[in-house]
Design goal:
CATH architecture of the largest domain: 3-Layer(aba) Sandwich
CATH class of the largest domain: Alpha Beta
Radius of gyration: 25 Å
Number of domains: 3
Distance between the termini: 15 Å
Number of helices: 11
Shape: globular
Strand content: 25-35%
Length: about 525
């Protein structure tokens, strides 16, 4: 048994470092797919007749976490408001590699994550630009409604469902990838119906607005209309933090600096072909034709900074923003955007630019060609289509030439270096940024008994020390139990479902950490 203890201690010292909730990976991840958050009318049906469809999400939770006031992050996938393959792309669903990787990354740090699907469908190949623009705007409008319905679903789950997801309804972020970024920024800023009847959103032939609320419902999706069913009315659609990877905003007038608006942050590629870095045209992958002029991530965040929406983000402690130095360099750098001829300041506070060669726009995406071939073969067989996997693959490489999982994860790491400290500030998560000092049990008077144990273990420390949290890992380094917010000098930890064997514990005190092994016997 002494040999086992020695091995356990060495493993503990090897893989356990000082951990800060929401900033460091601390948990395993539990995934529950295909949950339903609402039902609404879709225009994308087999026979072309609008019909109701369930709106779904995949839930990612920190496994073993006992808190019931956790922050919630909704992840909106990319896809040009059309399904994968049909949109001329490989990506476009909540199972995209980037989406699942981001969801697991966040859940491992203590966030509850919902990767959600919104209603799709528009007419990108229509020869009439009015039809292209109107149907795209209508798709974005439905997506914003669905995003808000998803927010309300979770708020309702707290008020009426016993808080089954263990979240704080006042700590919600929307993280948008590509087109999903239009939804995160749109759901945060579109608070006046007049903002969707601007001149550029008016049909140039019949002079009618592209959006008619009697057909599409109000901006929140809480009114009955021809193509809108109310979902969870009576709850607020407000949230605290909007994050955007390569998306855009419908119009600068949507940003007002109102108290109901969230804080905004994001990352964008300078030479993105499909969505403007600063301001310009939306070009869709399906046809690569003009649809509408919008403002890009860089300008949207510049405006949010000026309007005061991002004041809360300035509370990040000095030295705790991993990208602080790079952002300052970008703020002092002037660049020329070849696609638009604009010469601008590359950066701004709470924004990070990627000056990659033309025409890279989503370096955080990746896919596997053999899997893609299997998916395409299945779709062609079951739906009578004739998609070509190699054509789609090489088309994707045009804007992501050295695509790989390693590359995608590197850019996601950069995105989260931007996201995490700002999420902590925007949602008031109380992130400590503390690098805990490893101390001995004797220094804090730690007692663990009984050990070995059968049903429970009691941890105690001497005054004035206080135990904040205890994390339990198996011999493979996997988190199997977590108790947080203990804030007491003693804590009795039940065994529950842990099997017999040696476990490694990480006991956190204020600014201090102790690593000890425990044993459960049959």
């Amino acid at each position: 048994m002494k040999k086992i203890y020695a091995i356990a201690f060495l493993l503990c010292s090897f893989f356990l470092q000082a951990q800060n909730r929401y900033l460091d990976a601390m948990f395993g991840v539990k995934v529950t797919p295909n949950l339903v958050y609402g039902n609404n009318i879709t225009v994308l049906t087999a026979n072309g007749t609008p019909a109701p469809e369930d709106l779904k999400f995949d839930l990612y939770e920190p496994e073993g976490d006992t808190r019931t006031d956790r922050p919630l992050v909704l992840i909106a996938h990319t896809g040009s408001f059309l399904p994968p393959l049909y949109n001329g792309q490989i990506t476009g669903s909540r199972s995209d590699s980037t989406v699942t990787a981001a969801a697991k990354y966040l859940a491992a740090r203590g966030f509850v994550v919902a990767a959600y699907t919104y209603r799709l469908g528009w007419l990108p190949t229509a020869p009439d630009v009015n039809v292209r623009t109107s149907t795209l705007l209508q798709a974005a409008y439905r997506g914003i409604q669905d995003t808000r319905s998803c927010i309300r679903y979770f708020k309702k789950s707290v008020a009426e469902g016993g808080n089954a997801f263990g979240i704080d309804p006042n700590k919600i972020a929307v993280y948008g990838v590509g087109v999903g970024g239009y939804l995160s920024f749109g759901a945060g800023s579109l608070n006046d119906f007049n903002e969707v009847v601007l001149d550029k959103f008016i049909n140039s032939v019949d002079l009618k607005p592209y959006i008619d609320s009697t057909i599409f419902g109000n901006i929140y999706g809480t009114s009955q209309a021809v193509l809108c069913l109310p979902n969870h009315p009576g709850y607020s659609s407000n949230f605290q933090f909007a994050f955007n990877l390569g998306g855009a905003l419908g119009d600068s007038s949507w940003l007002d600096g109102e108290a109901v608006e969230p804080a905004y942050s994001g990352m964008h590629c300078v030479n993105d072909f499909f969505a403007p870095y600063y301001e310009g045209a939306v070009i869709v992958p399906t046809t690569r034709e003009f649809v509408v002029n919008v403002i890009g991530t860089r300008k949207a965040i510049e405006l949010a900074n000026k309007l005061g929406s991002n004041a809360v983000l300035n509370t990040i402690p000095d030295g705790k923003d991993p990208l602080e130095a790079q952002i300052e360099v970008q703020k002092a750098t002037n660049i020329l955007i070849p696609l638009t001829g604009q010469r601008i300041q590359m950066g701004d506070d709470h924004f990070y630019g990627l000056n990659l060669p033309p025409f890279q726009g989503s370096p955080w995406d990746w896919w596997d060609l053999p899997t893609l071939r299997n998916v395409v073969a299945f779709v062609n067989q079951t739906r009578g289509t004739n998609f070509n996997a190699d054509t789609l693959h090489f088309s994707g490489l045009q804007t992501n030439p050295d695509m790989s999982q390693a590359k995608g994860r590197r850019y996601l790491d950069t995105a989260f270096a931007l996201f995490l400290p700002r999420a902590c500030a925007a949602m008031g998560l109380g992130c400590t940024y503390v690098d805990n000092k490893e101390v001995s049990a004797e220094q804090v008077g730690l007692s663990i008994s009984p050990n070995p144990a059968v049903s429970s273990v009691y941890f105690s420390v001497k005054n004035p020390e206080v135990i904040q949290s205890i994390y339990v890992y198996d011999m493979q380094g996997r988190l199997v139990k977590a108790h947080t917010d203990i804030n007491n000098s003693g804590f009795n930890m039940p065994r529950n479902q842990l099997g017999a064997g040696v476990y490694l514990t990480r006991i956190h005190l204020q600014g201090k950490t102790i690593s000890k092994q425990i044993v459960f016997e049959n």
